[in-house]
Amino acid sequence: MRGVIKGVLAEELENSLRMKKEYEGALRNLPKGCLAMRRIRGREYCYLVKRVDEKVKYIYKGKLSAEEKKKFEEAKELRAKYRKLLSQVKKQIRFLRSSLRGKEAI
Predict the structure, then answer these.
(1) Angle CA(39)–CA(32)–CA(13) in degrees, nearest 5?
(2) Does the structure show a pLDDT above 80 at 106?
(3) Predicted model pTM
């Protein structure tokens, strides 16, 4: 009976590792940073905010179309979704590895 359970846990661990790899790949493919609108002297300016090494950089983007703004908003939502899923799958991987490492009682 224990061998069957360990087999199921091992298979689930394999699936979780595959999902982790997919989530990390999806995060890498998303555009970096998010848009920030700054109002200077009554006019709005669009900047791309992203972390470069340890510093936060504001990169002027000029006028962006509504389509480009929407793309960055969708990327921001997807990034949050994938980070949450990645966190959950990492917890699951830790649990499965510790369960598989456990000693069998005779």
Answers:
(1) 140
(2) no
(3) 0.73
